[in-house]
Amino acid sequence: MLADMMNKERRKKKIEKLIAYATKLAGTPYKYGATMNEAPHYFDCSGFVKYVFAHVGATLPRSTLLQAAYAGRKVRVMRNLLPGDLIFYRSIRGHYNPKHPGGIGHVVLYLGGGKAIHAWSKVIKDYPVRIEEGSVRVQTLRQIIPLEKKLVIIKRII
User: Fold this and answer.
1) Is 76 exposed, middle or buried (0-12, 13-18, 19+ CB in 10 A)?
2) Most exposed residue of 118, 122, 141, 155, measured as fewest CB within 10 angstroms of its CB?
């Protein structure tokens, strides 16, 4: 019982450190396909979560698809969501594999209180060259995951 209490306290401190670090990066410009060498100056969604989890000693794969497939453990229902959990859903762009045949297009880090942080963008111009603008930002889950976007999986890393 004492060991369980100590583990919960360690987890809580690690999540607090994760969230504090992630929120300090709010405003960092978005760049689709940003490499880890470009962090912390640019992020895409999966690079952002990989980077902030590394800050607390957790190693994640680079892509949303691999993060969803192989990192952490599955959280079965949205009501069990805890700060520090990752939420994956379908988006305009998606990546597919046999584990997630419907595809995964985006990942956000849940902060608690109905809010999450993510590296986000919107298309400014689509032709002849696609131009996007965005940044790391804190939003409510309702703002981030509109009803038309499908939740794919929730993962608990820490």
Assistant:
1) exposed
2) 122
- 132 neighbors 30 (Cβ within 8 angstroms): yes
118 is catalytic: yes
Residue 55 bears catalytic tag:
no
Write down the domain spans for the chain: 2-156
**pTM of the full structure:** 0.89
Catalytic position from the list 41, 95, 100, 118: 118
* Residue 98: per-residue pLDDT: 62
- Catalytic residue (choose from 41, 95, 100, 106): 106
Instruction: Identify the pLDDT of residue 93.
Output: 62
List beta partners, residue 75. 154
Fold classification of 2-156 (topology level): endopeptidase fold (from Nostoc punctiforme) (3.90.1720)
Mean pLDDT split into 10-residue runs, the chain, 158 residues: 79 96 97 94 97 97 92 93 94 63 86 96 79 92 77 92
- Residue whose entry in the numeric block shows the structure tokens 């959990």: 85
